[in-house]
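Table S4 entry, Septum site determining protein.
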Amino acid sequence: MSAATSLPSSTPPTAPAGPRPLLITCDAELAEDVLRLAAAAGCDLDRAPDPLSVGDRWRTAPLVLLDGPAAEAGVANGLPRRPRVLVLARAPGGDLYRAAFHIGAEQEVILPAHEGHLIELLAEAVDRSAPRSGRVLAVIGGSGGAGASVLATGVAVTAARRGQRSLLLDCDPLGGGLDLAVGAESTDGVRWSGLSVSGGRVAAGALHDALPQRRVGSGSLAVLACDRDGPSSGLTPQAVGAVVDAGRRAGQTVVCDLPRHLSEAALAGLRKADLTLVVVAAEVRACAAAARLVAEIRDRTAGRLRLVVRGPASSGLRVSDVGRAVGVEVLTAVRPQTGLSTALDRGGFCATRAGLRRTVERAASEVLRALGRTGTAPEHALVGAA
């Protein structure tokens, strides 16, 4: 990721407690450069001036970085070979390869030419030891006006009210911007046009700090919205994948609001989801449209696919009828709430009165329970009465 254009490089590291990558050098300038890159990767480093002072960290560190003199000293003092060792240098060539070979180095990293690659390697070291506790939800409308964006926003807000950190991703460049839906349109922070991902990886802490945020209950909600005054140039498949992965690494509830006409960027979010919801009105034409959408995305969903039905219908179409017509199990149903749209226009979901939010939040609670069960045995269909 190009931190210079979008995210601060001074974000506190997000690595969990435990063994940290180890930097061995007495070169103060080199150490300063590596520490800067580690901060961009959300990685906290241990540092030692020479191989004699590392102790057991040589064995336990998930990644070891050392310069040429340190590698030569390590060989001279009999440090055993180990995996995941990188040798740092300012220029290629010389006799460095001999010490690198004997110390077990897998790569030679030339700085500053290979800075982006080193950031990726440091971020991978964080990922390897971090619990992947976050969950990813994708929400898509089965037909126009189904209410998918309202449900996506409701799930993200409800997760935050429960003390979680939630991340709401707006993947629809023609949707008007989900920052409006949470009342964060005037809040400073990065939108998609301000995000540049070049290395395929985003430091989770830096990302969260850079986005517009709202405190909701005892939790927090960050939103990455599309732009209203120009193209959302940063909304690329690579960026969506990197942002979703960052939220997952940070243990966040990540909610992706996807457009019905799926772009490659939206498909990247769909493939990452643990659970995908298609929101469909209890109407015959809506069911026909949703069935066609499901046929297109069923094989592209990495996780489970479920319906959320908006009803009841004046025609008497039941929730179970909708599930059969579309060919997907129904997770829950949500009743239309009179006045909700007007309230959202006046301040966003976070500012809407609890009574108006209640129907959506009840459905959001069902969704969060199902999302929490992803990765376990498949659940039975939960059909809400409408």
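The mean pLDDT is 84.
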